[in-house]
Amino acid sequence: MKGIVIYDTTYGNTKKIGETIAETLKQSGIEVDLFYVKDVKKLKDYDFLVLGSPTKFGTMSFTIKFFLGKIKSEDWVNKPFAAFDTENPENVEQARLQNKEWSAAEKIAEKLREKKMTEVAPVLKALVVGQKGPIVEGEIERTREYANKLAGELKK
Ligand SMILES: Cc1cc2nc3c(=O)[nH]c(=O)nc-3n(C[C@H](O)[C@H](O)[C@H](O)COP(=O)(O)O)c2cc1C
Predict the structure, then answer these.
(1) What is the largest CA-CA distance in the chain?
(2) What is the pLDDT of residues 31-40, one digit of tens each?
(3) How far apart are CA 92 and CA 77, in angstroms?
(4) DSSP for the chain?
(5) Which atom of ligand 1 is nearest to the CA of 88?
(6) Cα 130 to averaged position of ligand 1 atoms, centre (Å)
(7) pLDDT in tens, 139-153
């Protein structure tokens, strides 16, 4: 089994979360390639997809949206996926208060479910401060725990 972790990033925070997920999966013995979204050349022949974006205006970045348009359902049907994002703590609180979905990862997951992929983990919303970060304390550890659980699901 070999998967691909893909992220978009402007300031490096989402990259760091993607790297942490990829490293943790590798440590659990799962083969994985890691790519910045604009560097992805080949998308075929992978067994699972982990896709992440910074949250911008309550949704995924334009680059990730464009990239999702290139994911062919026939290549990925029934294959596992997980989605992650970075966003601000206030965003999570606002979404909760208004009972609204205001996160890149939720929107990515929705699109991948439409492509008939199988969601094997709940979305990960990694918290960052403001636009440039840093990543909120404890979030890297939470990402490692998340990726360990994901590894468990992928091995099933
Ligand atoms: C134009 C713009 C819009 C943003 N909109 C939101 C938003 O709606 N909700 C939120 O939580 N964060 C928002 N942010 C903060 C981003 O989530 C933050 O910049 C991002 O997580 C940083 O990731 P990166 O370092 O990978 O670029 C916005 C940032 C920018 C630059």
Answers:
(1) 42
(2) 999 999 999 9
(3) 30
(4) -EEEEEE--SSSHHHHHHHHHHHHHHHTT-EEEEEEGGG----TT-SEEEEEEE-BTTB--HHHHHHHTT--HHHHTT-EEEEEEEE-HHHHHHHHHHT----HHHHHHHHHHHTT-EE-S--EEEEBSTTT--BPTTHHHHHHHHHHHHHHHHH-
(5) 11
(6) 7
(7) 999 999 999 999 999
71 is written with which tokens?
């994911």
Which residues have C-beta atoms less than 6 Å from ligand 1? 9-15, 54-58, 86-88, 91, 128, 131, 133
Cβ–Cβ < 8 Å for 119, 141: no
CA proximity to 129, closest of 92, 84, 83: 92
Residue bearing tokens 């606002």: 94
